[in-house]
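PT: before anyone asks, these are the final sequences, not the draft ones from last week. 223 residues across everything. Please model them as a single complex and drop the result in this thread when it's through.
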Amino acid sequence: QKEVEQDPGPLSVPEGAIVSLNCTYSNSAFQYFMWYRQYSRKGPELLMYTYSSGNKEDGRFTAQVDKSSKYISLFIRDSQPSDSATYLCAMSVGTGNQFYFGTGTSLTVIP
Amino acid sequence: KAGVTQTPRYLIKTRGQQVTLSCSPISGHRSVSWYQQTPGQGLQFLFEYFSETQRNKGNFPGRFSGRQFSNSRSEMNVSTLELGDSALYLCASRGSVFSEQYFGPGTRLTVT
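LR: through. Structure below.
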């Protein structure tokens, strides 16, 4: 079983829709949870960073962590064509430890 | 501030050959990590170097090796290339082992 599981999609939504992206994990020791966005032919860039359980909001993006279910989500409100990218979840036991990534979900926002 | 740079951007090699990839971190960053990205496996951690010392190592065979120089630039070497080594190799740097990672654009390696 992989440490982190993520539905690869692809996901296609109309502009303005709410997007929900999810990952599940198996290691209950994970404490740090991250979401990265990767545009075509670019490296991943950090979008959101959460410690332990709870919600974190940044503009149109909300990250949720449910440690009891080993489940994390990223919500994108009022999605824009510029949000079209691959979204990767990542997690680690500690900030100085190895990062484990999901395989990424490909998102297309249609104008 | 210049971002993480990786050279070359694209590379085609033949099975059995070896290859060396280079990564220049953001100025002042002392930690460099290497990842392999493939459609089926996603991003997989290879190793991390901090101040010329390997801190962490992923679950890859010994054909994959790396090093870091005193100026924090890092190289990754893959010997005896296999078809399955075809992937995007990403390098990421951070200022300390407790801070955010910044990724480079990657080197696309194709093994034929």
